[in-house]
Amino acid sequence: MLVVDDVPLIRVVVRATLEQVGLTDVHEAADGAAALAMMNQRRYGLVIADWNMHPMTGYELLRQVRDDPQLRETPFVIMTTKEQAHCFVAARRAGVNACLIKPFMPAALRETIEQVWSVTQSPATGTREAATVLL
Fold this sequence. Notes:
Elements: E1 2-4, H1 8-20, E2 27-29, H2 32-41, E3 47-50, H3 58-67, E4 76-81, H4 88-93, E5 98-102, H5 106-119
Parallel strand pairs: 1-2, 1-3, 3-4, 4-5
Helix pairs in contact: 2-3
């Protein structure tokens, strides 16, 4: 799993939330460009990216992932604040699997991951990526 956000504290919070729901194999990237480089080195069963980052936004990352034949099937969740939730329309058009409004409770994150994994499979393994016990 890859968490992408340009605010270190947000990455820490998302990682801690993921650990609360049983997911411990979590990697972090500070922006879309760093995430894309990491995704070209390793396949991830899920990417959770913030919409608003610099220099490459989560939306730009999503578009590049969906345009890449090797990465396009990667499950992808966009997160942003309630004030920017109108951006979810463009994210859905670009092929995002789910959208999440920050801040969120662990249960909302768990439900989002379950929703995404119930309809997608990890391109790296052909099966849903999961911790020992998912959620």
